[in-house]
Design brief:
The chain is built from 1 helix and 22 strands. By secondary structure, the chain is mainly beta.
Amino acid sequence: MFELVYKLFKRISSILYCIRYKNCFSFLGKDVRIYSPLKIQGNKSIVIGNKTRLSEGIWLASIPLESSSASLVIGDNVLIGHHNHIYCTSSIIIENDVLIADKVYISDNSHSFEDVNIPIWRQQIKQLRGVVIGEGSWIGENVCIIGASVGKHCVIGANSVVTKDIPDYSVAVGTPARVIKSYDFTISKWVKTI
């Protein structure tokens, strides 16, 4: 009984959150569920597509560096797990039907660390390349994607760090992530690449 009441409470709180913030986003699609976010910054430059689910503890930010603009676009039917941190200073696009597990970090920027006389947190933020996560991809738990893109229908293994682009139809793992399998359409199978 308690579990049923808890699920009902979560559903109602998600609906109330979406109603409350409907006009705060650049675009908020139909049947979106946002469950108890940790923080949402730069709402007016965030687009969330239809039937997308954002789990508890998520932090979304779309804050431009200096005078540039920022755009965070999350497509339709995207499922984003608990305690994800998606921080955009220029461009991050998560295409349709992407599954993102818990505790994933996605960013198009990084801290500078060139000056060893200044603490890193006091140095400027460095703009990296925009990030695109292709449709139908699955991003595993604890993955970091920093200034790199992931192709469509890819699998990024848990605990991987993606700093270079991953091509379509690939399985990538490791730190730094490297492709270990790719889909061969001539034989309709996944084949090892290493």
